[in-house]
Structure formats: structure tokens, C-alpha cells
């Protein structure tokens, strides 16, 4: 169990005030985010059929929660890890045009997650996806989109400050960009997580680009499934988080694979057998649009803006008894 217990921690809001603030942040952010990004809110599934290949495979080792249904025979149904691939198909099915997109409230179960101050078995995020052109599959498009998202998050900080001035955690005024290879070159003796904290502490907010492929050292900065993000055109939005004295990731996003990137990355990951799955066939045959998309953690954003020490303060989930008890001893009240 990995747990950080800040000294002399005391929440600025009571549990009931926190619940009110959570509702305010979630409702306000999604409305502003949708308008800024030209996204329509859609309903989304909590589970998908295994055979479609639509579920997010994360790092390839996490096992989804699965079950069978009375009217579906022996077909395995999986609770989603995320909607990374489902959204792209939805944009095709619902007739979205270029520069139009969708967002949805995504709820997932990741039973193999290592629980700590940031990570829960329950994942709640705004999953979003937007249609772009083939020519817009560029670093410039990626960075411009990151800046749009950062602007909404920064504006949300001001909104929370007006309503809860005693509790808001203040964010930097701009976001910087760096690649995973530049990070390794800069901090060759640190682990990827340590590199993220160092660069976040220096700049306040950073978008770390090009996650998934091997670096010069032969190691990967972090895992990424090979069949949704293009590893050359993706990244994470992270902030320096003073209450825990380390980086906090709020969003993972990227321009999605085209047929060439899909084939290349599946070969690197040694999972070319996925090419026969329906979703992958659609990408290979360009039946789905070119898109950019990602997820923004709802509980992570609430935690960041309210200066909370544990994601369990802004999310109702299940935690080991030892974690619950130790948190209580240090003034951290898990929902």
C-alpha cells in the first residue's frame, strides 16, 4: 500500500461542503469544457462485448471485470477500462463532422489498480473525442488542443475561488511542453515518476509528450495501449501538487492511430492478432474518422482544485481498512 500522509493536514471544507463543491465543479466544468471544445454530451456504455476489441487494454496486463448475460449466451461482456476506442466509433455512427466532437461521463472499474492517494479501483472521468482531418494529425494540433483544455481548467480555478475562496488550490498561468526523451536526457538517473515530479515542480504545469514507445535507454516512460493513441502524438497533462509534494496527472490524451501507426504499434507490442478484430479493421480500412481525444479525471480535478490529500475525499470507493484507518488518524476522511 502506497500512501502519503501530509503533516498537519486539515481539509478546508467539511464532508458536506466537499460534496457540494464536487457537484459544482463537475457540473460547471463539463458545460464550459463542452462549449470551448465544441463537444456534445452523449450517453455511453459501462460495458462492451469482448469480441469487438473496443475495450481499453491499458498496459496489457490489467484484467477487466467480465461476466455473461442471460440473453447473450456465452459471450463475455467486459466492464470498460475507458472508452478510448468506443468514442471514435460513436463519432462515425452518429455522423459527427470535422471539428465536432463528443464528451461523456465515463465510469470504469480497474480492479488491478495499485491503490494510493491518486488511484482508485473506481475511475470517473470525462471521456472526449473530436473529429480532425488527416492533415491535422500533427504536434501543432495536439499542443493547441492541450492549451484549450488548460484554459478551461484555469478558468475553473477562478470559478471555485469565487465560491470557495478558503479552499481553492492555485494553479500556474501557463502550461509547458516536453517530450519523454527530453525528460530522460534531462534526468537520466531518475525514474519516470520522479522525472515528472521534477519537471512539474519547475514549471507548475507540463504536458509530457510521446508516451508508449521505447526511449534511448530501452525503457518506456509509461505504458500505453498500442491501438488508440499514436505514441508520437500523445501525452499527459500534469501539475505540481504542493499538498503531496509531487506531480498529479489530470488528463491523458492524444491524436488517435491511423492505419500505419496502428500496424506499427501492434507489431512493437507483439499483439498483431488484434488486427482481425472489428474495431481494428475499421481503422485499417479508414471506416472511422481521424480523431483526437482523451480523458479528464473528474475526481482528480476535484482533488486538485480543492487541495485534497486523497482522491477518496472526493470519490466514494472501496479502500483497505488499513488505509482508511491511517487516513483518519491524519485528518483525511475518505467518503
Description:
The structure is a single chain. With 335 residues, the chain is an alpha+beta fold. The protein has one domain: BirA Bifunctional Protein, domain 2, CATH 3.30.930. It has helices at residues 15-37, 86-93, 139-163, 180-186, 192-203, 259-268, 278-284, 298-306, 321-329, and strands at residues 39-41, 47-49, 66-67, 77-79, 101-109, 122-131, 176-179, 205-209, 229-241, 246-256, 291-297. An 8-stranded mixed β-sheet has the order 1-5-6-11-10-9-8-7. The model has no long low-confidence stretch (mean pLDDT 92).
Secondary structure elements and pairings:
Layout: H1 15-37, E1 39-41, E2 47-49, E3 66-67, E4 77-79, H2 86-93, E5 101-109, E6 122-131, H3 139-163, E7 176-179, H4 180-186, H5 192-203, E8 205-209, E9 229-241, E10 246-256, H6 259-268, H7 278-284, E11 291-297, H8 298-306, H9 321-329
Parallel strand pairs: 1-5, 7-8
Antiparallel strand pairs: 2-4, 3-4, 5-6, 6-11, 8-9, 9-10, 10-11
Helix pairs in contact: 1-3, 1-8
In short:
The chain is of the alpha+beta class. It is built from nine helices and eleven strands. The chain has a single domain, classed as 2-Layer Sandwich (BirA Bifunctional Protein, domain 2), CATH 3.30.930.
What is the quaternary state of this protein?
A: single chain
Low-confidence runs of at least 5 consecutive residues: none
Total number of domains: 1
> Which structural class is indicated by helix and strand composition?
alpha+beta
> How many strand units?
11
Count of DSSP H/I helices: 9
* End-to-end C-alpha gap: 18 Å
Highest CATH level, the class: Alpha Beta
Using the CA coordinates, give the radius of gyration: 20 Å
Task: Tell me, briefly, the overall form.
Answer: globular
Residue share in helix: 25-40%
Mean pLDDT metric: 92
Protein name: Aspartate--ammonia ligase
GO molecular function, one term: catalytic activity, acting on a protein
Subcellular location: Cytoplasm
Main location: cytoplasm
Amino acid at each position: 500500500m502506497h500512501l502519503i500522509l501530509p503533516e498537519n493536514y486539515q481539509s478546508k471544507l467539511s464532508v458536506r461542503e466537499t460534496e457540494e463543491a464536487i457537484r459544482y465543479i463537475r457540473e460547471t466544468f463539463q458545460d464550459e469544457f463542452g462549449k470551448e471544445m465544441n463537444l456534445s454530451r452523449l450517453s455511453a456504455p459501462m460495458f462492451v462485448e469482448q469480441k469487438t476489441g473496443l475495450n481499453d487494454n491499458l498496459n496489457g496486463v490489467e484484467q477487466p471485470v467480465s461476466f455473461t448475460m442471460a440473453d447473450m449466451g456465452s459471450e463475455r461482456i467486459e466492464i470498460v477500462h475507458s472508452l478510448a476506442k468506443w468514442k471514435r466509433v460513436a463519432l462515425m455512427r452518429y455522423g459527427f463532422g470535422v471539428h465536432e466532437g463528443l464528451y461523456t461521463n465515463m465510469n470504469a472499474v480497474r480492479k488491478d489498480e495499485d491503490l494510493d492517494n491518486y488511484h482508485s479501483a473506481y475511475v470517473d472521468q470525462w471521456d472526449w473525442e473530436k473529429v480532425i482531418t488527416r492533415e491535422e494529425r500533427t504536434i501543432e494540433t495536439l499542443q493547441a488542443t492541450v492549451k484549450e483544455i488548460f484554459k478551461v481548467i484555469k478558468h475553473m480555478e477562478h470559478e471555485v475561488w469565487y465560491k470557495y475562496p478558503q479552499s481553492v488550490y492555485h494553479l500556474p498561468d501557463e502550461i509547458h511542453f516536453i517530450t519523454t526523451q527530453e525528460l530522460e536526457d534531462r534526468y537520466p538517473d531518475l525514474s519516470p515518476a520522479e522525472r515528472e515530479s521534477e519537471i512539474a515542480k519547475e514549471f507548475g504545469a507540463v504536458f509530457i509528450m510521446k508516451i508508449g514507445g521505447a526511449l534511448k535507454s530501452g525503457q518506456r516512460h509509461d505504458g500505453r495501449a498500442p491501438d488508440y493513441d499514436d505514441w508520437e502524438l500523445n501525452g499527459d497533462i500534469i501539475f505540481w501538487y504542493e499538498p503531496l509534494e509531487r506531480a498529479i496527472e489530470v488528463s491523458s490524451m492524444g491524436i488517435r492511430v491511423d492505419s500505419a501507426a496502428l500496424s506499427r504499434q501492434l507489431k512493437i507490442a507483439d499483439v498483431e492478432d488484434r488486427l482481425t478484430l472489428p474495431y481494428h479493421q475499421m481503422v485499417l480500412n479508414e471506416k472511422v474518422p481521424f480523431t483526437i481525444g482523451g480523458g479528464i479525471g473528474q475526481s482528480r480535478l476535484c482533488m486538485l482544485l480543492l487541495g485534497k490529500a486523497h482522491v477518496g475525499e472526493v470519490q466514494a470507493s472501496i479502500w483497505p481498512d488499513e488505509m482508511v484507518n491511517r487516513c483518519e488518524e491524519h485528518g483525511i476522511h475518505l467518503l
